[in-house]
Amino acid sequence: MNDLELIFTMLGERMTTELSQNEKPETFDKSKDVAKRGGKVAGNARIEAEKELGRPVTTRQNYLSLTEKKKRLQDENKKRNK
Fold first, then answer.
1. Could you tell me if 15 and 38 are in contact, meaning their C-beta atoms sit under 8 angstroms apart?
2. Do residues 8 and 45 touch, judged by C-beta distance below 8 A?
3. pLDDT digits (tens, 9 = 90+) for 6-25
4. Which of 9, 12, 63, 76 is 20 to 30 A removed from 48 (C-alpha atoms)?
5. Long-range CB contact pairs, 30-38, < 8 A, 24+
6. H-helix or E-strand spanning residue 79
7. For the chain, counts of helices (H) and of strands (E)
8. pTM of structure
9. Distance spanning both ends of the chain, measured CA to CA
């Protein structure tokens, strides 16, 4: 991830945490709503940043090819089975 992707991810996570601590949701559905709202704040901020920059914030750098994904999963499974 690049710096901006990380920042907007962190914003979404932090907003969700703050909302959750304030509202103390007691059910899965309420928690899901809080998470969506926290993500929406970060999503809106990203959109505004992209408008100002005139380019996308996200990159394809954080995506692995299917082969790399399979290899990574195999490695993780081997570690778990030890």
1. yes
2. yes
3. 999 999 999 999 999 999 99
4. 63
5. 38/12, 38/13, 38/14
6. helix 66-80
7. 3, 0
8. 0.70
9. 30
